[in-house]
């Protein structure tokens, strides 16, 4: 069976042990001035991936790099390995990677390592092989950010419905734990109704309908993916007569993760409060930064970074967990948000 | 046209099914389980015994119940159709894809009007049914494997067409069957009720309905008796495909979007409802009313489990255990044989 939201949901992976791993910090400027950059993506059908590839190539060009055309594996994990071979024979000296499959990409990484071509993986951490850096969003923090927004909106008391994704996926677990831990620790007066939806729209809608009609004091709804949950949840609120605009009395506060164009549209229409968005601009910016560093022979150690994130070890590779921007009415038109790159 | 003998033969085929039932009420054997679930539900939450909540249960069960009708038609004739669940996703996706003009958000750019898109959805279901019919009836391939492959193929086509995107911003008319209301009751409930009444009567009294029982009871006997087995089977598969497409349209209306996973895993609940409701997996036995009680039991359980706030990690385990208990209970109270 296919993953519901492939581009957002990484496969569940065992986290590598960070303990005992020592990385030498390179000193000096050591950013490669110019080299040939390849970009390999597992899929290019959804707007998120299209915009990300465009931005990465543009950023590479702006940094004075020579860029090869984007290699698109079109959902074929085998083709992505071939793509790696082709990019390297075309002269790529560093590769930015969006893996189709975190396990199947390992041979490609091993091949790149034998050719001394550093790779920076974006959004999804490989299960093995060598990557100079994995750049991912901090999903635990996304959940905690949503928790903070809910607590503020509810005035630290009331009832919130948490529509979880799939607890068998890494992103699902992180988004649940980040939210639940923050609620338990900092906001014990808020009652959390947590329900699993397995990233299924019908399940999320049915649960929202049941809880909305049976819980008169429901104050907020937290959705772990607006791509699959938001249309149904808003439909439920509408038919229950509880879809009030933001700021009106009786409004049920809604916050979601992903920040899709649809979520933006509903924020602009004042029916959706906030979305925690995938930090695409940061993926591209820091992905390129690490790639430049790696090509110049630099390696990166675990610990806090200078850009409000931390580097952890993940399956033997360093992983920079970037903070995700929160989208509200105030910043919904910010061009740095990925959904605003989608042409209407 | 079948000759006169076909009217009599199906009657003989159904007889063993009737003998198995207790007081002729085989289809009501789940009533104790439903009553029990309602009692538990009323203790679990104050909100359970409200008319709003019962409307929720009925609305949330409506799509499943329509797919159960579709599957029942095929099960009665002794075949399987696993691909119905992917029709629930693919058919409304095709319609939505044809409607949406913005290619960046997953549309086709065709901009088809909603009143053309809805027939296209049903046509999509009919085509899938017809292809299944060709493979099963004409080429004599095993229905289980054919529809399993079809399930995977259609799911893949759905994913390929939209590239894994959720389709939304659909016209209200397209969503009407799943979000509209008549006399304060959701349209989807009316629709499911009407279909149950019509097809229940059809299966019981119409020549073709009886023919399905006859084929499921004994294909050769039905053929000898003059039932046009191939044609009836093919028709059942096409009608089932259209019903699944309709269910998909209702579901899309309720969730106001089409998601790539729409209908996924639904077929398990379709089979669970049908079987605990007394439809035999070997064909020829069971009533639509029984299948409906199966759907209602699952719907009530899902609702009770949500309201009872069972720890999220355990909800599926509890659900599965209860389905097993219902199966045992229906065997004990009904005395029927669920040999499959």
Number of strands of chain A: 15
Question: What series of H and E elements makes up the topology of chain B?
Answer: HHHHHHHEEHHHHHHH
Helix count from the secondary structure assignment of chain A? 9
What count of structural domains of chain B? 1
**Biggest protein-protein interface?**
A-B, 43 and 46 residues
Contiguous helical run count of chain B: 14
CATH topology of the largest domain in chain A: Rossmann fold
Q: Beta-sheet strand percentage of chain B?
A: under 5%
CATH class of chain B: Mainly Alpha
Residue windows where pLDDT falls under 50 for at least 5 positions of chain A? 1-29
Structural class of chain B: mainly alpha
Q: Say what oligomer this is.
A: heterodimer
CATH class group of the largest domain in chain A: Alpha Beta
Count of the domains of chain A: 2
Q: What is the straight-line distance between the termini of chain B?
A: 33 Å
CATH domain fold name of chain B: ABC transporter involved in vitamin B12 uptake, BtuC
Count the E strands of chain B.
2
Give a summary of the structure in a few sentences.
The complex is a heterodimer of chains A (344) and B (340). With 344 residues, chain A is of the alpha/beta class.
Q: Overview of this structure, please?
A:
- The complex is a heterodimer of chains A (344) and B (340).
- Chain A has 344 residues and is of the alpha/beta class.
- Chain A has helices at 47-62, 77-89, 106-114, 139-154, 170-186, 201-214, 226-239, 261-268, 280-295, and strands spanning 36-41, 66-67, 71-72, 94-98, 119-122, 133-137, 158-164, 190-196, 218-223, 253-258, 274-277, 303-304, 310-314, 317-322, 326-327.
- In chain A, the strands form 2 sheets. In chain A, strands 1, 2, 3, 4, 5, 6, 12, 13 and 14 form a 9-stranded mixed sheet that branches. A 6-stranded mixed sheet of chain A has the order 8-7-9-10-11-15, with helices on both faces.
- The longest helix of chain A has 17 residues, at 170-186.
- Residues 1-29 of chain A have low confidence and may be disordered.
- Helices cover 70% and strands 1% of the residues of chain B.
- Chain B has helices at 5-20, 31-44, 51-76, 84-99, 114-138, 143-162, 172-179, 187-205, 207-217, 219-224, 229-255, 266-276, 288-307, 315-334; strands at residues 181-182, 185-186.
- Chain B has a two-stranded antiparallel ribbon with strand order 1-2.
- In chain B, a hairpin with a 2-residue loop joins strand 1 and strand 2.
- Chain B is globular, with a radius of gyration of 20 Å.
- Residues 1-23 of chain B have low confidence and may be disordered.
- The chains are: A alpha/beta (344), B mainly alpha (340).
- The interface between A and B is large, with 43 and 46 residues.
